[in-house]
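User: quick one - fold this with adenosine-5'-diphosphate bound?
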Amino acid sequence: MSRLRSGQWLALTAGGLVLAALVGIAITLLMLQRLGDARVQVVDRVDPARVAAQVYITALVNEETGVRGYASGGTDDFLAPYRQGSKDAVTARARLDAVVASGKVPRLAENLQAVGLASTTWHLLYADPVILIVGREGKDSKNVPSLDQGKGLFDQVRGAFGQLQADLVAERASARTKLRHAATAATWSGLLTALLILAAAAVAALVLRRTIANPLSRLARDARRVARGEFEHPVAITGPRDIQGLSTDVESMRRRILAELEVVNDARAQLEEQTRDLQRSNAELEQFAYVASHDLQEPLRKVASFTGMLQHRYQGQLDERADQYIEFAVDGAKRMQVLINDLLAFSRVGRLGAERALVSMDDAAADALKNLAAAIEESGAHVDVADLPVVRGDRSLLGALLQNLIGNAIKFRSDGMTPEIRVRAVRGEKDYVFTVSDNGIGIAPRHAERIFVIFQRLHPKEEFTGTGIGLAMGRKIVEFHGGQIWLDRDESASEVDDATGHGSTFRFTLPIPDDDESDPTP
Ligand code: ADP
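Assistant: Sure. C-alpha cells for the protein plus adenosine-5'-diphosphate:
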C-alpha cells in the first residue's frame, strides 16, 4: 500500500475500470455479432429460399399443366403456360442457386439437384417428346406418350420438391431457435456488462477511499488538531507514498514546534522564577531598609544627643583636639540621622497605605515652598509656580516630590547667580506633564539615568550636602502614582563636564484623573 503514490493508485483503479468495461463490451459485441448472423440466416437465406422454392414448384406445375393441356387440346395456346413456367422456373432456380452459393443452408444443394434431375427427366422423357410429336403428328398420334407416363414422371418432381420443402422448414425452425437464443444471450451479456462496470466502479471507489481518501482525511483531521494548538497529538503516517511524505513533513513540523514550545516554556518558567526571586528580594530589601533605618534611629538618637550634650557641657574644657573630635562625632551623628530619615522616608513610599484623593498640585507646591522657606530666603531664589492641575494621589508624597526637585534646584545653583526656578504643567493626551527647571549648574546628559539611582551623587559632600536619596525617592513617588520622571537632556551640554552651566529641567507625568473637572493648564 505504501509503495505507490496516490496518482499511481488513481491510474491503477481507472485502468481496472477500463479493463472491466472493455471485457463487457467485447462480450456484448460478440453476442450482437451472433444475433446478426442468426438474423441473416433467417431473413436473407432460409426465408428467400422458401419463397423461391414455392415460385419454382409453381412454375414447374404450370409447365406440367401446359404440356398436359397441349397433349389433350393440340393447339399452340396450351403451350403458353408451359413457356411462362419454363421462364419462371429459370428465374426461381437462379435465386435458389444464389442461396446455395452461400453454402449456409444444409442439404439445399442436394435437394435442388434432386428436383432438377427429376424435372430434367420429365422434360426429356415426357414434355419434349409430347411437344415434338403433337406439333408434328397431331394430338391423336399414337406416338404421343401417355398421360399416366407424364404423371408418373412429374410425381418424381413433386417427391423431390417435398423433400426440399421439408428440409427448408426444418432449417427455418432451427435458425429461428438460434435467433431467439442469440437475442437472449445479447440481452444478458448487455445486462452483465452493465453490472460488471457497476461492480468495477464500486470496487474502484472502495479502493480509492481506502488508499487515498481515508489517509487524506485522517491527515487533515490530525493537522487541524495540531493547528488548533494540540501539539501533543501525533500525526499518523499512512496512505500512499506522497501522502506519507506530506504526513511526515507535517509531523516533523509539529515536533519542531513542540521542541521550540518547550524551550519557550522553559524560558518563561525561568523568567517567572527570576521575577518571583526579584520581587522577593526587592521586598526583602525594602523590608530590610525600613527595619534597619527604623531600628537604627533609636541608638543613633542616643549617640546624637549624648555627643551634643558632651559638646555643650565640655566645650573648651578639654584640649583643642578633643573639641575637634567631639565636633566630628556630632556632625557625623547628625548626617547619619538625616540619612536614616531620608532612607526611612524612601522605604515608606508605597508601603504604608498612601491616600488616593484629589490633590491640587498648587497646594502640594505651597507645602513644599513652606518647608523650603529658609533655603529660599537664604539663597534669594525666585520660585515661579504657575497654575498647576488637580491629580489623584497622596498630598504629602507629591509635596515631598516637588520639595526634592525645587530643593535641588536651589542647592545646585550657579555661583553668583540668583536661582530662577519655574514649575509648570501642560495637559497631554492621558497625563499632565510637569516641568521643574532652574538656571543652576546643570547635569551632563550621561548622568541622566544615574542620578535617579539611590545614593548616587555627582558631587562630594563638602561641595554640596545631601544623601543621594532625593531623586530616587522622587522616581519612586512618581511611579507609585502611575507616571514617569526623567531629566530633559540638554543637547548643547558637554558630555565631559558634570555641570553644564545651562541649568537643568526635570519632567514628570501624572495621570489625568477620570473625574477631573478643573483644567488649570494654560
Ligand atoms: P542629593 O540631592 O541628596 O545629592 P539627589 O538624589 O536629590 O541627591 O540628587 C542626585 C544628584 O543629582 C545630586 O547629587 C546632584 O549631583 C544631581 N542633581 C540633582 N538635581 C540637580 C539640579 N537641579 N541641578 C544639578 N544637579 C542636580
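One thing worth noting: The longest helix spans residues 147-227.
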